[in-house]
Predict the structure of 5HT6R protein.
Amino acid sequence: LQVPCAPSQPVAGSESRRFANKHSKKALKASLTLGILLGMFFVAWLPFFVTNVTQAVCSCVPASFFDVLTWLGYCNSTMNPIIYPLFMRDFKRAMGKYLPCCRRSGEPRPSAISLSMRNSNSGPRAATSLKNVL
């Protein structure tokens, strides 16, 4: 009497391939997001830092040019909230949960009490004193 085990092996192999494929897609997407964020950071802030060092050495950089480069760096900070929702589904969901403009019509609005309890690490806990801690 032989027990057929051949059909279960291809199923396990296909599941592992599907898991590896899904994992590699996530890793690729995370790498792409990180590359875009770092690229934007370097494009925005590298000229500012190079000019800042140049200004310290030779004092030959006009103030208006320095101001333009400073604002270019500030623009990078405004780009991050735009880039994150474009590439990260979890970030988009979190923003939709807390910002009224991004919330779907069927989702309930979180209450201020639940938000403060979640963010403050407060809640029911045993009374602690310095004597108990030591």
Observations:
- The mean pLDDT is 74.
- The first helix runs from residue 8 to 58.
